[in-house]
Amino acid sequence: MLEVLNSSLDGLLIVFFWKTFIFMMLGISLGMIFGLIPGLSGLTGMSLLLPIAIGLPPESAIAFLLGMYSVTTQTDAIPAVLIGVPGTSAAQATYLDGYPMAKRGEAGRALSASYFASVWGTLVSTVVIVLFLPVLRSVIDNFASPEFFMTSLFGLMLASSLVGTSVARGLTVAAVGLLLSTVGFAEYARQSRFASDIPYLEAGIPIVPIALGLFALPEAMDMLLKRSSISGRSANIGKGSGAMAGFRDTLIYRWLVIRAGVIGCVAGMIPGLGGTVAEWLSYGHAVQSAKDKSMFGRGDVRGVIAPESGTAAQKPGALVPTLALGIPGNAAMAVMMGALLIIGIRPGPDMLFENLHTTFQMTWTVVVSNLIVAFLCLWLGRHLVKICFVRAEIIAPTIFCFMIVGAMLATNSFGDIVLFGIFGVVGYTFKHSDWPRVPLIIGFVLGGLLENNLWITTRRYDAGFLIERPIVVVLEIMIVAIIASIVLSRIRKHRTAPQPVESFED
User: 129-168 pLDDT, tens per residue?
Assistant: First the structure.
């Protein structure tokens, strides 16, 4: 435990090193904008900033990306509360009670409560991770290639089945991501695959054009097609800041904050769930645990505190599977994991042992970023909301120019632009035809890990590893349970669906 505490202190000192701190503040500033603008998100921001980050030193790149990602779910509460338009999908539950509070003149109280709940939720999640870390280290110490293969497969199955409205579509898109990860030269097979003698494809497909095309370009296109301001509603800021009232609310409902923080942390640790699920689980818990439920949906501050605490807590939680197991906790962590691999940091057991200080740097970056942005929002909130009313014709072309430059930075090849355009069309089509995009990027990132671990496993172990290694057996049972739950839910839906009335003609 002493080693964990020493590494935690080392990670905190790295965060406050002047160069790292400057890049974190730059990321925070951009993250506040991504959270404020409805339609953008931490995932979009991660995709846009990825080309810049991969050219930085590892500590600065981590601070830059995580500083941006950490704060989007704090500033997204501003448009959700003031104008009734959630900045990201993770602010939808906050809108249910935050907007009614704003309409009766308590916007300052609602926003203050959301900021401080996010800070407390992040701290709760960090404490849970520190307490959980010794157990995780002992488990990870017994991992070898069979366990990593099965863990990656479990994470891919879980993420694909939980994202989107159709499990079949999620698994199909994940399979496409896995297929894309095989493009290029395979070192262990000593042959080129699916490259068709195209030099650009020999080194494999870079992640930057894929991420930008799938997630950033569709949002910019939708903004441009609106031909109006991002939000047409007026902001009801209300009288007074309400900062102290919101702070007192988080202290009064401190046990709700702690419980929601634990729920969010656990949701973050489970690959595929993400902030939206953490938010609704926390909001549902707040409603179920309340003695008086009459004000929920009509301006109950508990309906702001719980989801904001849960959403913030899932971000440190999502770092655990990403760093310890090499399984992205959510789509943004998939992009983050791609960045880590590019800058020379390989997720896995080393992140809990030799590189534990780097793990804690990432955790503390999330905590410190939330603290800083809470005070910035309290100070600048009245002015920040004005960004929501900038015309889309101004913002969208600017973002598009950044995307073009960012895509070119992947390999400095015209092929990056072509790839960016192709996946932009795919992303836009998927978004407007109810096909999930997240499993594709997760499948692409996990593809190399799955393939390499499968290759090593088949060479070093025989088929007996499937029944002889306890962790593998547990993961197999969990995968079977996922498949069984999918099949049973489909059978249940089929049985409860109304049967068509047969008509007979004479």
Answer: 888 888 877 777 777 888 888 888 887 777 677 666 677 8
Place of tokens 């197991």: 325
Alpha-carbon span 280 to 307, nearest angstrom: 7
The whole-angstrom separation of Cα 344 and Cα 463 is: 33
pLDDT tens per residue across span 58-99: 899 999 999 998 888 787 777 777 766 665 656 767 877 887
Task: Report d(CA 318, CA 444) in Å as an integer.
Answer: 18
Strand partners, 499: none
13-27, 165-179, 358-372: segment of lowest average pLDDT: 165-179
Tokens describing residue 97: 């009670």
User: Which CA distances in Å does 86 have to 93, 104, 106, 167, 309?
Assistant: 9, 18, 17, 26, 16
Residue pair 268/316 in contact (Cβ under 8 Å)? The answer is: yes
User: How far, in Å, CA of 2 to CA of 14, rounded?
Assistant: 19
Length of the chain measured in residues: 506
DSSP E strands: which ranges in 137-205?
184-186, 191-193
Neighbours of 496 (CB within 10 A): 7
- What does pTM read for this prediction? 0.73
Nearest by Cα to 91 from 102, 83, 103, 79: 79
Half-sphere exposure of 132 (CA within 13 A, CB side): 17
Helix spans in 141-163 (H): 145-162
Q: Encode pLDDT of 259-308 as tens digits.
A: 989 988 887 887 766 666 677 778 878 887 888 777 777 788 888 898 88
- Give the C-alpha separation, 17 to 70, whole Å: 19
Q: DSSP assignment, residue 463?
A: T
CA distance 42 to 253: 28
C-alpha distances (whole Å) from 161 to each of 85, 277, 306, 391, 481 are 28, 14, 26, 37, 12
CA dist 137 to 318, 323, 350, 464, Å? 16, 12, 10, 26
Amino acid occupying residue 346 = R
Buried b (16+ CB within 10 A) or exposed e, 12-51: bebbeeeebbebbbbbbebbbbbbbbbbbbbbbbbbbbbb
* Cα angle value 425/333/398 (rounded, 5°): 45
